[in-house]
Amino acid sequence: MNSTSYTISYVNHKIILLTIALSALIISGLTACQKTPTNTSTSGLATIVCDASFENIMNQEIDVFEYTTKGKANIIPYYASEKACVDSLLDLKTKTIVISRDLTQKEKDYLESQKKHPRSNMIAVDAIALIVNNDNPIEILSISEIRDILTGKITKWSDIEPTKLGDIQVVFDDEGSSTVKYMRDSIMKGEPFGQNVFAQQSSREVFDQVQMRKGAIGIIGVSWISADMRTRDMSRDERIKSLQEQDTTVADFDPAVKVLKVRRDDQLRAYKPYQAYIYDGTYPLFRSMYMITTGVNGSLSHGFYSFVTGTIGQKIIQRTGILPARVQPRMVYLE
């Protein structure tokens, strides 16, 4: 991957950790100035550091949670690489993180040695979607074709099927994201990225690049391209009320881009990343999503953790198009 993007990612990592540390000091100072404790499970200030791939999901969780506390709680999110998330937790700069894996035993032991008792919960299974421009005639890619595109063995769309599109440009969200790590570890088997792979600064930029460039293919979390038409134009009050409904079906994907079907090399049928196909494992590109906290019972950090892992928090996750850990999917539209 482009070396410039690596440098930018490293600098951003340091800036994010410094910013989180500064915020922690400010929050501590504000708490110390209070005559009576105000940090409860539904009030006060708390930070969370979340893998940038999950920004769209966590913003919605925070929005609804703060609303339910009537403005008494303020969750301050930071979106960073997975490494920055874990470092901020181990350095005691935040009490809550969201990443694509559980803590290792070594990381848990270190926190215990600091008298911090981490709790972790798998809150969702996220799919990684492959998106292309709507003018791209390609509909399906196999796992081996994806691997060859990422490693630079396939560099032109015509190497897959007849087309005049030309060169393939692969676009990721960020050099240090869990999306990059997943594709490197699970699909590429440790091989290096080709010269046709580029990192942006956000998932939104990946989406925009694919819209603008006919030869681009974006690697992106499925929540960024899910289109829940029923809630898109709702007010916050209406959105909160809709979460009380039993129907939590996600209809389809954003029509501004094309979502490719993916098939395993030993199978003929290909699938799009719908929740039902994530649930039964037929869609092959998926990863877990973990929420980890060292917040004690009664703290705002623990209160938010309980909210996200609870019924309403899980319904919010389902509305984003990924698979919640505790709500079974029900589909009304499938190809």
Which features would summarize this protein structure in a list?
single chain; 335 residues; alpha/beta; D-Maltodextrin-Binding Protein, domain 2; 2 domains; ten-stranded mixed β-sheet; two-stranded parallel sheet; 38% helix; 21% strand; disordered N terminus; signal; Phosphate_ABC_transporter; PBP domain-containing protein; PBP_domain
Work out the helix count: 12
The CATH level-2 architecture of the largest domain is identified as 3-Layer(aba) Sandwich
Q: What is the helix fraction of residues, given as a range?
A: 25-40%
Q: Kindly state the number of beta strands.
A: 14
The CATH topology of the largest domain is given as D-Maltodextrin-Binding Protein, domain 2
> Radius of gyration in whole Å, from Cα?
20 Å
Order of helices and strands: HEHEHEHEEHEHEHEEHHEEEHEHHE
Structural commentary:
Residues 39-309 form the PBP domain. Keywords: Signal. Pfam families: PBP_like_2. This is PBP domain-containing protein. By secondary structure, this protein is α/β, with parallel strands linked by helices. The chain folds into 2 domains: 3-124 and 288-324, D-Maltodextrin-Binding Protein, domain 2; 126-279, Periplasmic binding protein-like II (D-Maltodextrin-Binding Protein, domain 2). Helix content is 38%, strand content 21%. It has 12 helices and 14 strands. It has helices at 3-33, 55-68, 82-90, 105-113, 143-151, 178-187, 203-212, 229-232, 236-242, 275-279, 300-309, 311-319; strands spanning 44-51, 73-80, 96-99, 119-132, 140-142, 169-172, 197-199, 216-221, 226-227, 252-253, 258-259, 261-263, 286-293, 323-324. The strands form 3 sheets. Strands 1, 2, 3, 4, 6, 7, 8, 11, 13 and 14 form a 10-stranded mixed beta sheet that branches. α2 (55-68) links the parallel β1 and β2 (73-80). α1 packs parallel to α3 (82-90). The longest helix has 31 residues, at 3-33. The protein is globular.
